[in-house]
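Minutes, structural biology subgroup

Action item carried over from last meeting: produce the structure token record for Mannosyltransferase related to Gpi18 (Nostoc sphaeroides CCNUC1). EB confirmed the sequence was re-checked against the source entry. Recorded below for completeness.
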Amino acid sequence: MTKASDKTLLKLVKSQFNRLLMSLPFPVTGYLAIGIILAVLIRLICVPNESLDYKYFLEPWYDFIASNGGFSALKYSFADYTPPYLYWILISATLLSGLPKIFAIKLFAMTVDFFCAFLTYKIVRLKYPEGRMPNFAFLAVIFSPSVICNSVIWGQCDVIYTTGLIACIYFLSIQKQLLALVSFGIALSFKFQAMFIAPLLLIMLLKKIIYWYYLPLIILVYVVLILPAWFAGRPISELLLIYFNQANKYKELTKNAPNLYQWIPNNFYNIVVPIGLVLTICTIFLFAYIVYKSRLEITQDRLIHLATISVLFMPYILPKMHDRYFYPADIFSLIFAFYFPQYRWVAIVVQMSSFFGYLGTPIYIQLFSIPLGFTLWFVVRNCDIIYPKLKALPGENIN
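Output recorded by EB:
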């Protein structure tokens, strides 16, 4: 090829690449595009890893659906996950059966990784209408160790319900309460751990930012999403009690979660679990009451602050938590770091604590429960709507 034709080809490739970037739903610069490509490559490299979750749960579920007639397999209680996630396994085992099994199973969560990053971008864009901060927030999510470990290496789906929670906060930020509750309903339909955001929603109810008569919408979303499994023949009682059965499955105070129960022997399980549940409920109501009585307005910054407290507090103080249950805290701590740059170390501590949880080394998990507890205390202590400052800030809005 001549030099002229080389230049023509280069210009053509460049123009097509720029056109692709312009077609995306948010501005994509060159470095962001490179970051996305690199994140995709990392995921493709890590896909072949067969975790214990994949070997003992995901792959058998796929095989069961494939060998029991596809959709009709949903009438059996072969999995302890809710139907919405099993629908994806159904798609993987039927429509995507031509793909490698492990890739088809992991594809959904890997794709949602980027949607979660996009919603994070949108929330950070509310703080920084101009500049590169939202782009950096997007990259921080797709390169987060927890995100990569969870969806790509382990093949887990915590990003799905967490994305629903991020969407809930985004819609609350732009005052679309109905969409916020629909998003929460979708999150709850995938994992009960979506309830980690419940303290914030209780505050929104008490502050009349969300109206009580909107709450049935959450139940409606859950019911609609389990209907296909019911149509397939699975009893409605089983579908409604899935979370109750999950709660009674493991008899451990903590399953590699870096929380305060790392320091309590499992021999005290029957005594500590009810105490922990009562303590959590009482603290939630105290937390909501303090914020409710505050005269300070729940601004966008305070909304992010309160959301971060909710998703960090719940898995730290609740018993029976697993290593993956700090996943929402991982994402919200990143958003928190962009909203409050002086506290970036909070995101670092949360990310490191979760990462060692994924590694499964008991001594490190136990040790990291200490700085994580301090971080939770710090985030709570520096929330001015909980600990009001002596003097109101200039221009502060008072209810």
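Discussion: The beta strands are 254-255, 321-322.
Next step: EB to file the record with the rest of the batch.
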